[in-house]
Amino acid sequence: MNTIQEILLTEEQISTRVQELGAQISADYQGKDLVLVGILKGAICFFSDLIRKVSIPVNVDFMAVSSYGSSYQTSGAVRILKDLDLPIEGRHVLIVEDIVDTGLTLSYLKKNLLSRNPASLKVAALLDKPERRQVDEHADYLGFTIPDEFVVGYGIDYAEQYRSLPYVAILSPSAYLGS
Ligand code: 5GP
Asked: Which residues of the chain have pLDDT under 70?
């Protein structure tokens, strides 16, 4: 059974956009103490490609939060599974996230990190699905706006599968509806 319905973003498209975002971030944060916070696990590919396109010195750290688990619908409940190792008070923080969908995860993360008094807090997201937004959240640095489809690849999983695909693809509904 072919579980990939369509390739939405090719390796080349992603690489070009990530390079542009890296250049923009490097210019905007020149001379600033920047901590890039990758959100595990979905942002792993975006994060590792992006940091290599940022030409200024940065610190990196990670958080893991629960989102979809192994089902394909968001619960709205967010739980921290792994917290930051580094202190962020007085530092410029950039959250690096895979997808902004309903916006609930981002809303929670921002509230949580803002309570630690960073100098600034912004968001870089690879993908935005604005059709499903429930709260007024957005990425300050955005890779691509995509339609309301369930996507996998380039770090993004379905039930822990597909993360290693080099592209972003729409998953065939038969993969999660079990037909
Ligand atoms: P939100 O809280 O904005 O609804 O959800 C954000 C999280 O939901 C993302 O970080 C991602 O883990 C997950 N998510 C949203 N859309 C998709 C999708 O199309 N595919 C997968 N695999 N996860 C998604």
From this structure: 1, 67-77, 178-179
